[in-house]
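User: Show me a protein chain along with its predicted structure.
Assistant: Here is one chain, sequence first, then structure tokens.
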Amino acid sequence: MKRKVISKTYLRDVEKYEFRLEYDKTRDFYICEKNILSIEKSFVTKKGKTIMDNGYTILEITPRDENYNLRVYFNRQKDIVEMYFDITKENGIDECSQMPCYLDLYLDVIIEDGECELKDEDELKDALNNGIITQEDFNLAYRSANKLIKEIHEKTNKFINLDLKSLLKY
């Protein structure tokens, strides 16, 4: 299982970026904003959507009381291109960097073009079969993903219901 520190992840081919981090005490989550100033090569999804390019922004929300980390990709016009939830074992603070981090449980939930999709089940099963995670971790990943998908479909997820664009400062 990989510990991912939000200041260091998901910056593939990014050469220069602005970084902002704050903690929302009222709602108990971290907000990380990465404004891409220069990228070697645009990142395009399998569906053909560009999610990382010059002038694009990545907003990450790391809640302390949930088993996921949310990454929202915005284009230059600050429209949401994709929402990506990493299902996590736990979220916290990395001792060395003092940055928010999470233990990634391999399973992901993606919202693109209004469609919600469960991804990387094969990676989760491989992690279980190779002894990287326990059966308890495996079950937690599916419970958390299914709960999240239900909230997305019922429009009750507290983060999707936020005005995410208003959290941007760049």
